[in-house]
Design brief:
Rossmann fold; 9 helices; 260 residues; 5-stranded parallel β-sheet; alpha/beta
Length: 260
């Protein structure tokens, strides 16, 4: 299926709502859509020891938050590297060579938003379609992102709290591999044991009602202003469902209505 214009998409949803599942399904169904994850970009920079990676490595290891300036610069350079921005300062690079990394590091130290502050325009080429993951998380971040690349579809995934809580409390994990089971809809063949290795499954320490309620409350506090920001811009769309399988068809239909 060919898109008729660029789709610049963000999915917003409470922890456990199935945001990751819906992202994967969208990317599979619409091949022109690419994933851009701020977390993956940061981890790549840390792994390849770029100046930015060195700068943020300790912050990430200690669970701190990387500054908005650096995240915005990272996203801007990634979009520019792919040729999806134009009209700004031509300072985008791949970060693949040492000379490029040195240039990037110098520019970053001098001006964390060099290029991004000039409001480059987003390409409307359908090939420049992406699903942005991990950013923005606040209305302030969204306002700054607007100056770089205007998001044109924001999906708010809505599932009742009790349904998510039941889903999470039924979740079991094989820690060495990361395989996840759910006794409600994806149960292991032998209760309590991994299908592949036969090793015991465990429940994550944060898969408790007390911990989840705190995470859910925090999400509500930060997401409401973010959703209001995008509602005012006319790009917010809400989808309700009790499960990922119920939500996905609605998501596909709306995406096709907007971009095909």
């Amino acid at each position: 299926m060919r898109l008729r214009r660029a789709a610049r998409v963000i999915l917003i949803g409470a922890p456990g709502v199935g945001k990751g599942t819906q992202s994967k399904r969208l990317l599979t169904r619409f091949p022109q859509l690419s994933a851009i994850s701020s977390g993956d970009l940061l981890r790549h920079n840390v792994k390849t020891r770029t100046p930015l990676g060195i700068k943020v490595e300790n912050t990430m290891k200690t669970g701190g938050l990387v500054s908005d300036d650096l995240i915005l610069r990272l996203i801007t350079n990634e979009l520019g590297r792919r040729g999806w921005l134009y009209g700004g300062r031509p300072n985008f690079m791949t970060l693949s060579s040492s000379s490029e990394a040195d240039t990037f590091g110098s520019a970053l130290e001098a001006d964390p938003l060099a290029g991004a502050s000039l409001s480059p325009q987003a390409s409307e080429d359908p090939a420049a379609s992406f699903l942005l993951d991990g950013f923005p998380r606040t209305a302030a971040q969204a306002q700054r992102l607007d100056d770089i690349v205007p998001v044109n579809w924001v999906v708010s995934l809505q599932t009742p709290f009790d349904v998510i809580m039941e889903r999470i409390s039924s979740r079991w994990v094989h820690e060495p591999s990361g395989r996840v089971y759910n006794t409600a809809f994806n149960a292991p063949k032998v209760p309590g044991f991994d299908d592949v290795t036969g090793e015991p499954l465990v429940q994550r320490a944060d898969d408790t009602e007390e911990v989840y309620r705190a995470r859910f409350q925090k999400f509500q506090e930060t997401s409401q202003p973010l959703l209001e920001h995008y509602a005012k811009k006319g790009v917010l769309w809400e989808v309700h469902g009790m499960s990922s399988d119920e939500i996905s068809p609605k998501l596909y239909q709306e995406f096709e209505n907007r971009f095909l």
